[in-house]
Design brief:
Radius of gyration: 24 Å
Structural class: alpha+beta
Strand content: 5-15%
Helix content: 25-40%
Distance between the termini: 38 Å
Largest sheet: 9 strands, mixed
Number of helices: 25
Bound molecules: glutamic acid, magnesium ion
Shape: globular
């Protein structure tokens, strides 16, 4: 989840007072890195994945399953021991996540040469799981599952928690403070300060999935909870009300980070992968149920965005909440700090940035004055419109030349669909990196590995075949909304570029800059800075709406080659050892089948299991009995005791 520093967190009032200090130093820290590393080239491709897990405790006697809150403390402490003892060459590394029931695992060292490592990913994921399994009690389980369907219901945690306090950290009516990771002060403080900044707990409204016996209108009865007045104020007909950071950041995802050869390549990849974010989110959809209800959404995205939305009413609307009049003293901010990216950052791609970008003008001027080009300055100063959320007393006075905590503080709390990552100061072996963040975690390691292989291969395809997938950023945003809908993978239609060849002007630009990186962009290639293949008017005609199947597998009718056929053509042009090619083909087939519906999304698997369970009353409620069987079957699947098909056929 980003930067972790241990120490004593400051209060929100103290943090707020230091916001400008942190931003100013953060910009200086970025500039120091930028100037020290902008010319650096030839970094070899290194990459790695992050898988987030939920730990559960089964109560077989009562057919109940609860979130095991010891994951982030007891389990994580044990898992991190070898690393803390200074052991190197570990096969896995473990990190804390937001919830007390979560942990995050990564490979011990980044993967290098891509092809040689493809066969190791799945095995490494299995190994990670086994490592945790060896520490579990007999009634516990570690699941790669995006959302726990009954999170935030009464008696959903072990040990038991007190729900309903309005004075606690996240002031939630449902999600207990004890379920926030107590092992590190960052998490509780994040939650508390987000509430304080926005002036109250989160207000997330998720449309309910309407089944034949679902009340119409569906209006929740909160009498089981405390503080009924607040609940009544917020409840909306036909929606489920979620009110805590835990409902969002308590969800799990699958992320991939890869190093680029230089800053230019990182920027190019960041842009070219951005149009893929909604497509891969929809394909990996895995979170259809929350707080005991089936929703009409398959993905976690909007829930997390709402869960960490720290904007004030005035920042959201641009008007004074008391008078309703427009205010000039507060800037309107269109989106949460967790959401899809707002702009492309490769120098030729500015034309495609067709949505409002709010920026920190002071930061922007400073970046430009120090020689950062326009678009990168815009990106960084856009991140720097946010306040720092957590500050540690011990880490305020730091050397801007050798440390980057203030930069990372703002950067790592801008949770966007892609992240552009400068090298850490001093770490010579780490270069410019890009993180792909929209995917939900899969039910099997084979599927998790398939998504990782696909994304890493896409980066090679983009660079080798000079692919151009850019569409106006407003259309990526539209796709992001489409991709969260129920069954978007099969029913959704997404804007996608028809002609995928990169125009000559961008190629020339890239060739001229590859090793020089961003430093000379402005002087050297001014003639190429504008793409000459599109205008503000014609860029909308370059994309059409397609299904995920058409985008991934191709469409004769739409004369679109499809990303997978292109990937196979790329692989055919490479000398790859037969066994490796076989395993790559296996993973690409999983992706092909996911796109055409042969292999259901985890969201679909979960829905089918619930619909067919005898204790499900077609009323959108996922009760304890249904949830218990569902989690038990997923656990059997993840222990390789049953197959996905068995799971689907296994409804009692
Ligand atoms: N769990 C978050 C998600 O599902 C991501 C947290 C992180 O950035 O590691 O998107
Ligand atoms: Mg994480």
């Amino acid at each position: 989840m980003g930067l972790l520093t241990v120490g004593e967190p400051l209060s929100w009032t103290e943090t707020k007072a230091l916001a400008e200090f942190v931003r100013e130093h953060g910009i200086e820290q970025f500039l120091n890195i930028f100037h020290a590393r902008r010319h650096k080239g030839d970094d070899t491709l290194k990459w790695g994945d992050e898988v987030e897990y939920i730990v559960l405790e089964f109560d077989h006697q009562n057919r109940k399953v609860r979130l095991a809150l010891r994951a982030s403390t007891e389990l994580l402490t044990t898992l991190q021991k070898p690393e803390e003892a200074g052991e190197t060459d570990l096969s896995s590394l473990w990190r804390p996540e937001f919830a007390a029931y979560m942990i995050e695992g990564t490979p011990g060292v980044p993967y290098g040469n891509m092809f040689a490592f493809f066969k190791d990913i799945e095995e490494n994921m299995r190994l990670r799981r086994r490592e945790v399994m060896s520490l579990l009690r007999p009634n516990e389980a570690i699941l790669s599952i995006s959302s726990f369907p009954r999170s935030g219901t009464l008696d959903s945690c072990s040990p038991p928690t007190f729900v309903g306090t309005v004075d606690g950290t996240s002031k939630s009516l449902f999600f207990p403070d004890e379920a926030i990771n107590p092992g590190h002060p960052r998490f509780g403080t994040l939650s508390k300060h987000i509430c304080e900044r926005r002036g109250g707990p989160a207000n997330i409204q998720v449309p309910i999935f309407r089944d034949v016996n679902t009340a119409s209108p569906f209006v929740e009865d909160f009498f089981a909870q405390m503080n009924i007045d607040r609940a009544r104020r917020y409840r909306q007909a036909d929606h489920i009300f979620l009110d805590s950071m835990g409902f969002g950041m308590g969800c799990c995802c699958l992320q991939v980070t890869f190093g680029a050869s230089n800053v230019c390549e990182a920027r190019l990849l960041y842009d070219q992968l951005t149009p893929l974010t909604p497509i891969l989110m929809a394909m990996s959809a895995a979170s259809p149920a929350h707080r005991g209800y089936l929703t009409d959404r398959d993905c976690r995205w909007a829930i997390i965005a709402g869960s960490v939305d720290d904007r004030t009413e005035a920042e959201i609307t641009g008007t004074d909440p008391a008078t309703g009049e427009a205010i000039t003293t507060v800037r309107r901010i269109p989106k949460s700090r967790y959401d899809s990216v707002d702009l492309y950052i490769y120098p030729t791609n500015k034309i495609y940035n067709d949505i409002e970008i709010v920026r920190n003008e002071k930061a922007y001027s400073r970046l430009i004055e120090s020689g950062v080009d326009e678009l990168l300055a815009e990106h960084i100063s856009h991140l720097f419109i946010r306040d720092p959320l957590v500050l540690f007393k011990e880490k305020l006075d730091i050397d801007d030349k050798t440390e980057s905590d203030h930069f990372e503080n703002i950067q790592s709390t801008n949770w966007q669909s892609m992240r552009f990552k400068p090298p850490p100061p001093g770490a010579k072996e780490i270069g410019w990196r890009v993180e792909f963040r929209p995917m939900e975690v899969q039910l099997t390691d084979e599927e998790n590995a398939a998504f990782v292989v696909f994304i890493v291969l896409m980066t090679r395809l983009i660079l080798s075949f000079n692919l151009d997938m850019l569409i106006p950023i407003s259309r990526v945003e539209e796709n992001m909304k489409e991709g969260q809908k129920r069954n978007a993978v099969l029913d959704g239609l997404f804007w996608f570029r028809k002609d995928l060849s990169l125009p000559q002007c961008v190629l020339t630009h890239f060739a001229a800059n590859e090793c020089e990186a961003a430093a000379r962009i402005q002087e050297q290639v001014t003639p190429c800075l504008k793409r000459n293949d599109v205008t503000k008017e014609t860029m909308y005609t370059k994309s059409v709406k397609m299904s995920v199947d058409e985008i991934i597998n191709g469409s004769h009718k739409k004369k679109f080659p499809g990303l997978l056929p292109l990937l196979h053509a790329y692989l055919d042009s490479m000398k790859i050892e037969a066994l490796t090619r076989c395993s790559i083909n296996k993973y690409l087939q999983i992706i092909a089948n996911r796109a055409n519906g042969t292999n259901p999304t985890p969201a679909n698997v979960i829905r089918s299991f619930i619909y067919n369970h005898p204790d499900y009353k077609q009323d959108s409620i996922v009760n304890d009995s249904v949830n218990y069987d569902l989690m038990k079957q997923i656990w059997s699947l993840q222990k390789d005791e049953i197959t996905l098909k068995d799971l689907l056929d296994s409804c009692p």
